[in-house]
User: Fold these one by one.
Assistant:
Number 1:
Amino acid sequence: MNIPQIMGLRLMSPFTEQKQQRRTSSFGLTMAQPLLKDTVSFGATAKMLTSRKDGVSLKAAREVYAITETMQPKIQKFLNELFGDLQVTQFKPQNPIYKISDRAKTPESIREKSATRQWNCRAEILDFMTDLNGAKIVMRDGSKKSVEKVLSRFIEPIKKGKIELIEIENKRPKVTQKLSNSKKSQYDYASIDFLEQLQRIQEDKWASMKLKEKREVRTDMFDFTEVNYPAIHFLFKLPGETRPFELMIMGKNVNAYKDLDDKLFKILNNKNIDKKYKPLVDVVSPLSEPGNKPLLELFNKYRGDAFLFQRAKKPTAFSESYEIEYFLPLTEDLPPQYDLNNLHRIMQECEAKAAVKQRTKKP
């Protein structure tokens, strides 16, 4: 992928070393003015959680989860039927889709987000929290040509009323904001023209249904994110469902780093994180303590540069053998333990130990 250098970022190999509409800006995803009732993101609420006393109880959150998880099999079925032949296999390693994953928001996450948004009852959550159900298409090849080939599969289902497109957010790295349009667009996963085509197809479908009120797809084609996080976020709705589900599109390399960065975000913003990651918490959490603001700012810049580094990597063919992930080596004046490759190693060790413990647990 031909990506321009940004702010002196050197691409090195590892070998060369109000309630429903409140959106806030912090390190994480800086959201645009509200397009809907909630942000479209996988756990990316940017507001610092200071108390879990607000919001719903864990019992209520579990009740919400029990309701929402019933939609997940329908989402899985739809996406697998639509994209199954485009996923990589041992015999088709050049297929464009690396994997499709999905999740229903956990009770703990529902409770936390209800507190940050001040939603205090089950009905408010079911009405306003649009990311209760979600899925993610991870692209082996994140080029525009490949992504648009995948997204074009939505055209016929939209025309036939098998799915509704509700919202589009085109996430762009904020650090590219001052670049020319041609250079800026190199970070996009699909062209603005293509996304607007999807928008028109859905709006034409609604117009043909002669609805009482005109409907429009909500869009933000230039959603610049503080974290320099490139992706496309959609809200879709399946027939017969009263709530939408979110769909995220991103490349394999960006997804690999985002797995780590999501945990860093939770640690630094006092959000719930699985106790198995305690060693990672012990290393990272001091950055958010009083007196460490300069280090935290450097670390946050480093995190953002790492997303650009991942986006600039060229796609590789699928392999069933183990792939060693490498991220941007430490580029800021930070202690060595904050190298993202070291933090990724700690995260993997935490997960491996938890897996062994789970396997050896007595029935």
Number 2:
Amino acid sequence: MKNVLFIDTGLSFGGSLVVAARIANEISALGYRSFVVTPVDAALIRHHFNEDVTIINLQKPVTYKDKMELAERLSNIKFAPLRKLLSLGHNILEIFKNTAYTKAIKKIIKDNNIEIIHNNNCYDSIKVAKKLGKKIVWHFHGYLNDSSRTTRKWLSQCDHYIAISQCVYDSAASSDFIASKKMSMLFNPIQNTIHYYSSAEIDARKEELKIGKRFVVGVFGRLVAWKGQLEFLAAFQQVKREVPNAVALLVGDDSEYGGYREQLSNQIEKLQLTNDVIFSGYTTNTDLHYQLCDLVVHCSIKPEPFGLVITEAMQNKVAIIASSHGAGKELVKNKSNGLIADPLNPQELSTAIITLAKDSQTRNNYRDKALEFVETLNAEAYAKQVVDIYNSILD
């Protein structure tokens, strides 16, 4: 049995950690034992992982959220030399503070005889892995928009790269420091099993949420600006004029980026949608909440690297409208297995929602074709491809 260490620095349970869980759960049958380093509380995510997967809670003292907040504060400083000086000082302080994290990663690698580091988003671990002579797989869960000296230095040292969509692959392959022969494009895998709930169970949850028999339009994902919930509300106001019994269900929390929930609530009140939009909050039972929906809208306003919401909705047998920004267009073929719409265009998005709300035959046809497609993305086949990559770089 060989040992692989997954490293994820995301502060909440997002797509990259979901995919790590699905890989880790499958590769034990293929000769690899998995260890997962994450800052997310193990108690909150344990149910996503098999018992033989070891979860290690570890957070960098200086996180990407801290860096984003600092960048915003520095942008308000008009005197460029001072801004550069403060930025340099912070970078030095970050290196010093994160030394403990790097040492902890080194200890984990040595104590557990790790052979491969499967890295989602942590440059610090590349240096450690290389010093210890370990192989590195870098998993691109987002676009490569940074060609700085630091990025070039560390990313160029990885042994293989996995991109989660063709558009992500293209962004990385277009760089001059990543060899395309070391790259693979693998769509994210779906979960192995879906629990399909009974009508009674679905009705009971609808009763709890005070949804009743209304037409449910679901929006899933963290409450963060780029996910487009605010833009969805603008379109949904227009939907209400044509589909009076429609209700919007927003599933997700804002624990990582506080304040956006309040902004959404203010907009809901302004648009007079108080009785027509429901926040479910964070849930560990996404299957049930998908199955409450008649339609799911993926409304990211920035190019989505993949869009797990899209494949999760498909797998739960719910029709999908995907954003025109990013990889959604690779998963949803417009007017074949769903619709594509621009959430920045409220008229376009509302028209798509109204079309499927009023035409159940087309909605169900898209749903069935989407299910056929998504079942090709099974986790077992995906894990075999990942293990082939592991074996190739260890040979």
Number 3:
Amino acid sequence: MSFGSKAPVVLLTNDDGPPSPSSPNIYSFAKALKSTLGWDVRVVVPDCQKSWVGSAYAISDVIEGKYFYPREPDGLEGEITTTSRPLKEGETMEWVLLSGTPATCANIALHNLYPDEIDLVISGPNHGRNSSSAFAISSGTIGATLGSSFSSYPSIALSYGVVQRPVPANAITLANEAAVTVVERLWADWGVDQSQQRSLDGSRMRGRVQLYAVNLLLVERFLERENRKVVWTRIARNGYGQLFKPKRPDSLGDTWHTGSVAAKKPSTEGAAQHAPPTSQTTGTNAPQKDSPDSTKPASAGPAVQQPVAQGGDQGMSSNDEQQEEDGRLVFHFAPDMKPLILPEEETLLEGTDSWALHHGYISVTPLQASYAEPDEESMCFGSEVGANRAPERNGEGKKGVWKL
């Protein structure tokens, strides 16, 4: 692998799954990479929504995969099969859907599906920002690139922040144009990280930035070429509070399902499947039985869209009261994202990714695949800071050794 010397073979994955209302970016972005840059793109994604899983691996699961052949114009329909086959008219790519996490998809793609073939890993574009530590640590999009970085592959996590719903179609087109430009520039002139000289001894990424997190907003005026501004950033530090709320046991049918596309009966003789119907009330894909007589291509979308908090915090709700009555513990994912997405301007530190997005800039954050460590003064007890009493300074033994 030589950075920028040739058109790379790209592994494209994500955490939103195949094309669907909650995964509207990956199909058009994959086409943009191919048509604009002429890059060879291999797509391996989870078969359903896998947001907020970080870099997790479900090690007790047996991972199953199927082949998906998305069709024009938006990839929402296409045939799913258990075996690979030649492309048909109207198909441009063969995708692989796996019943695993984003990090699992990246690892299987790199080491089982395309060993020694991939030059660059791109995860995304996520439908939602992954700026600030609260989102970044939880992000399956970034989690996939952390996993690929551990295998010494240069990686880019790409996220599109949603500001307006529905997202204007032209905003996604402009976002893809901007993202392709940023990705091309990074690949052609990949950054250095001298702190990696020793820690990655023998790795192809020694002395190199391991991964980048790229965030932009789906706002047309910020993405137009004459207004576009790209800045280097650091991750803004923040946190979150309550993520789950009580759920009425008699309303469990409304919870966030993670139904798998691959769990549907695949077409093994060229017969396509019905697309899962979309609920008019929830905007989600409703469960559906297999239809062997169907001729309509299958929707490759996950069972539902990303979870959305319903209503505000109302203190002791009927849900809480219902739980107290029957003693059951039932919770659903219902976070209040507003403080994370719309922080107070005075709290934004200049040069951070959240600050950049607040001003409409495209944020590019170099990252290492490791936990951040505090300064040297953390290597002693709090009472010893500034007192010249740290173990490595007072003769109690080897550097950093405690005296018990």
Number 4:
Amino acid sequence: MSGFILRLPILVDCRPIYARANFEEADFRIEQSKIVRVWGLPVSILVAIKDP
């Protein structure tokens, strides 16, 4: 875990959000996905299309 998160746990919420699973459960098709790091936290970027 990055030093930023350890020093400021009140400002940064570290609970995971399962975006891919949530989109798929709502009948979206994931077209592209990428994981990047923002201030040491992994962040998912998704491009999804709603299935008819």
